[in-house]
Q: What sequence folds into this?
């Protein structure tokens, strides 16, 4: 596995975790803690976007 493959897998896992956290915040925890889960999920998606942008440059 080269660096691009590892960044691709990291991007996939981070997108999956981000969507899972947003889903937890939206459907499981409807109180104040849901906002925290959703915000963390958005952070995971932003981090995955950065990893995807770095795929060809590292």
A:
């Amino acid at each position: 596995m080269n660096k691009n493959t590892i960044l691709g897998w990291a991007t996939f896992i981070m997108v999956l975790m981000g969507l899972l956290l947003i889903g937890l915040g939206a459907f499981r925890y409807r109180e104040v803690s849901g906002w925290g889960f959703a915000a963390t999920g958005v952070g995971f998606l932003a981090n995955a976007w950065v990893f995807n942008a770095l795929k060809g440059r590292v």
Summary: The radius of gyration is 13 Å. The CA atoms of residues 23 and 38 lie 8 Å apart. The chain has two helices and no strands. The mean pLDDT is 91.
